[in-house]
Amino acid sequence: MSLAFVILSAGCVSYGVAFLLHVLSFTEFWKRGRRAGSVMLQTGFLLGTLYFLSQGFQSGYFLPVVNMSAALAFFAWTLAFVYLVLLGKARTESFGLFLSLLLCILMAGSVASFGHGHGIQAMVKDHPYLLNPTFVLHVVSAFFAYANFAVSFIASILYLIECRELKKKSVSGFYHKLPPLERLERMVCLPLSWGTPLLLFATATGLVWAKHAFGSYLLWDPKTIVTLVVLGCYLSILYRHWVAAVRGKEMAVLSLIAFTIIVVSFIETAFLFGKHNFL
Amino acid sequence: MGFFIIGINHKDCPVEVRERLHFTSQKLQDGLAYAKDMAQFSEAMILSTCNRVEFYGYTDSEGLPEDGFFALMKEIHGVDRRDFEHYLYRYQGREALRHLFRVAAGLDSLVIGENEILGQLREAFQKAHSAGCLHSLLYRLMEKALKLGKAARTETLINEGAVSIPSVAVELAEKIFGQLIRENVMVLGTGEMATLTVKNLKNAGAAIRYVVSHSQERAEKLAAECGGEWVPFETWEKKIPAVDIFITATSCPYPIIKYEQVKKLMAERHHRPLFLIDIAVPRNVDPAIHQLDDVYLYNVDDLKSVADRNLKHRGLEIAKVEAMVEKALASYQSWLEQLEARPTVESFERHLDKILEEELGEFAKKSGIPDTRKDELRDRIRAKLLHVPLTKIKEASQNGGVARYLHALHSLFDLSPKDKDQE
Question: What ipTM is given for this predicted complex?
Answer without folding.
Answer: 0.80
